[in-house]
User: What shape does this take?
Amino acid sequence: MANVNSPQVSQRQISVKQLRFAIVISFVALAAIFGYFFIKGQSLTGIISNNIGPVTQPTPLFGMYGSGTVGPLNKPMGVAYYNRQIYVTDTNNKRVVVFDYDGHPLYTFGTQGTGHGQFQ
Assistant: This one.
């Protein structure tokens, strides 16, 4: 007697002939797509980039090397965001610089050393 609560799992396998047919159909579809764009005289990358929009250089919202009242950043490596404040690790100056959400420097903490609040 079969258990009515257990679902039956189909163990249908794909034959080699079906797999070959699926691969051939995939190649034919890709060839048709590329052929269409070739006949139109347009590249696929042009179509994709036209849909994305113009590529421009990013505009910094705030701070570049050396700007602001905290002095120049020397090898900034990490950025974290918490409670509308942006924390930037200033690696070679052995400190963390904290900015407000608008990019104005608030304060720094850390110095070079091995004690509390110091970085190596």
